[in-house]
Amino acid sequence: MRNKLNEKLIASIRESLPEGENLAQNLMDVLCIGKEAIYRRIRGDVPFTFDEVSTLSSKIGFSIDEIVGLSNSGSGLYELDLVEPENLIDRYAEKLDRQVKILKKMRKASQSMINFAINSLPDVFALAHDNIARFRLYHWLYQNKTRVNSFAFKDLVLSPEVIALQKQYTTDIRSMSRACFIMDRNVFISFLHEIDYFYRLKLLTKEEVEILKKEMITMLNDLEDLAVAGVYPNTGSEVHMYISNVDLESSFSLYEYNNTGYAYLKVSTVEGVESRNPLVCKKQKQWIESIRKYSVLISQSGEVQRMEYFNTQRDFVDKLAL
Fold it and tell me: What is the DSSP secondary-structure string of 64-112?
């Protein structure tokens, strides 16, 4: 029994690694143990510990469910993509790095697709704009800090490494074969309410609000151009953009590549719950498809609805009173 589980584990790892990459070297890099210890595990002489399997699943990206026999049952394992309260910026950087590694793997796949159903401003929109990205992170840090009285927006300075990871994330997303966005009508309005709230707390200055408003207008203009074109300008990757006619209760995303699925449910700005279980991914896909039925396509279509939507969002930005 133990050898069969080990064989399933090794097979899952091999399938998840990019073509041409060395199995043993990857295991050594992820688990930080020696060559002989790795080969004993590969041969089945020594079993992988649960912590090691969990780490490999998270770092390499395969489903534990398939190994333990849950992939076709009514149960599934979920991974909590949560951030510890200590060293929040470092944990945020580590999370971004994990996401970039998943996207790097997807870029090497012959076909890759990401589906988003979003009720709040997503990473893929926000991280392309420096101050918007910084404000989203600031809001999350503010809610996670126990002492926040003197913690103003100007106090948050991101390292070049974090900024580079944010840029890399947006670059990689735009390299997927296809992306689908289903947007709640309140995605941008809720973000403006957050700006207004922190301004009234005197944690944002008038000048900082104006900078954020300008970036919001730039973002909306870019997204409207993207909807008109239906492809990312530098990569030619397909983009399908919808406006939901029903309110979305949360933000969902589904990553698909090489017959592999990765489902993600957003918990907060930075945190979420994820699963690679095939049944969970199938259910997530069905749910996103059901939302699409109640949505209007505005990419390369729905010109009137598209113009009305983006003009309304720009009006909301302009009317943000100081």
Answer: HHHHHT-TTSS----EEE---SSSHHHHHHHHHHHHHHHHHHHHTSSSE
Containing 266, the helix (H) or strand (E) segment is strand 260-266
Kindly tell me the number of DSSP H helices and DSSP E strands found in the chain: 13, 8
| Residue 241, φ and ψ in degrees, nearest 5 | -120, 130
- Return the SS3 of 251: coil
Q: Tell me which residues of the chain have a pLDDT lower than 50.
A: 1, 70-78, 80, 82-83
- Quick check: 129 and 191 in contact, CB under 8 A? no
3 state DSSP class of 147: coil
Print burial letters for 275-306: b (CB count within 10 Å at least 16), e (below 16). Answer: bbbbbbbeebbeebeebbeebbbbbbebeeeb
How far apart CA 219 and CA 135 sit, in angstroms, is 14
- Is the separation of the CB atoms in 114 and 92 below 8 Å? no
How far is residue 120's CA from residue 184's CA, in Å, rounded to a whole number? 8
Cα maximum dimension of the chain:
68
What's the CA gap between 271 and 233, in Å, rounded?
A: 30
Is the Cβ–Cβ distance between 264 and 285 less than 8 Å? no
Give CB contacts under 8 A, 24+ apart, made by 152-158.
Answer: 152/202, 152/203, 152/204, 153/198, 153/203, 153/204, 153/205, 153/208, 154/205, 154/208, 158/89, 158/134
pTM over 0.90: no
Rg (Cα) of the chain, in Å, rounded?
21
Instruction: Write the single-letter amino acid at 299.
Output: S
DSSP 149: T
What confidence tens digit (pLDDT) does each residue in 68-114 have?
Answer: 654 444 444 445 454 455 578 888 888 888 888 888 888 888 889 99
Tokens of 75: 């149960």
